Amino acid sequence: MLKKDLRLNYSALRENTSREFILNASLSIANQLLKTPIWEGSYYHIFLPIFEKKEVDTSFVLSILYGKDKQVVLPKVSGENSLTHYLLTDSTQLVKSTWGVPEPTDGITIAPSKLDVVFVPLLAFDRRGNRVGYGKGFYDRFLSECGPGVLKVGLSIFEAEDVITDVDEQDIRLDYCVTPKNIYSFKED
Predict the structure, then answer these.
(1) Domain boundaries defined on the chain
(2) Annotated binding site for substrate: which residue ranges?
(3) Alpha-helix runs per DSSP H in the chain
(4) So where does ATP get bound (predicted)?
(5) Per the annotation, where are the binding residues for ATP?
(6) Which of 33, 93, 143, 178 has the fewest CB atoms within 10 Å of its CB?
(7) Rounded distance between C-alpha atoms, residue 86 and residue 106, angstroms
(8) Over 134-164, what HEC string results?
(9) Would the pTM of this model clear 0.85, i.e. be above it?
């Protein structure tokens, strides 16, 4: 299926889900994450959800990260098409961006090359590890700046599509995608 069709379909599916469904699915995703082999790193990059778009509630994953004593890093849109990454600390202040994304106002910047794991937002993904986001390319540009060993972990309330037919060469594949019921691995060992 084409990315534009997947964006339309999955945006509509999300719109028709209840907040309770999102909350329960998000908790199940966090529990599934505990079964993945991603916990050896130090720096974990995570997105904060746009609740109006019914994204995965990552507060459960944040609790796991804190419980495992990990360094948590948050993105902030900087400029027209890039992200800056800040260490989340007790003094970090968050403000909603024009897109509704909670972002740090400032703080200690962390280079993408330092990251061990990146939790990646998405609308849909396929059985090959390709993902569809909102179409702005922020995460593909960001992931291309990360080190070669970074683990890219998608979080999805829905299961995999068979195939995304219009994948571009700049699209960066996931290593894992975690849903409420499954852990998909795309790592090539």
Answers:
(1) 3-185
(2) 50, 55
(3) 3-15, 19-33, 59-67, 138-145
(4) 3-7, 131-139
(5) 3-7, 131-139
(6) 93
(7) 7
(8) CCCCHHHHHHHHCCCCCEEEEECCCCCECCC
(9) yes
- How many Cβ atoms are within 10 Å of 128's Cβ, its own excluded? 15
Query: Rounded CA gap, 83 and 160, in Å?
Result: 27
Query: For residue 80, what pLDDT is reported?
Result: 77
Residue 148 CB-half CA count within 13 A: 1
- Nearest-angstrom CA–CA distance, 189 and 170: 22
Binding residues: 3-7, 50, 55, 131-139
Q: In the chain, which residues have pLDDT < 70?
A: 189
Which architecture characterizes domain 3-185 according to CATH? 3-Layer(aba) Sandwich (3.40)
Yes or no: say if 15 and 158 are a contact pair by the CB < 8 Å rule. no
Which two tokens mark 72? 């948590």
95 SS3 class: strand
Q: Report the pLDDT value the prediction gives residue 186, as an integer from 0 to 100.
A: 97
Query: Side chain identity at 162, as an amino acid letter?
Result: D
